[in-house]
Model the fold of this input.
Amino acid sequence: EEVYVEQPPGFENSKFPNHVFKLKKALYGLKQAPRAWYERLSKFLLEKEFTRGKVDTTFFIKRKMNEVLLVQIYVEDIIVGATNDYLCKEFVKKQNSVALSTTEAEYIVAASCCAQIL
Done:
């Protein structure tokens, strides 16, 4: 979807004050931003051999031998769980940024994980 925004304060073009900017990518705070972020993250996970959950499409699983790495996305929070600490630490270490989850997000993710596992 094409999105246009007004010229932000301090970046107005005095020759063209009524012109707007066409966005090349989603900005934080716009309704398109979460969808763009989720698409980018899910593409990354699928490229790293994760499979998408069948019940919850924001739940990703990676199995390697007898080990399992679980990733649950809730809005802009990511919950990571694994059968051993090394997998979690290795996954988190590879990310450019990690968001700390709120209690609500953790509760919802835990419930979703349980439903997916069952």
Remarks:
- The radius of gyration is 19 Å.
- Helices lie at 33-47, 85-93, 103-117.
- The longest helix spans residues 33-47.
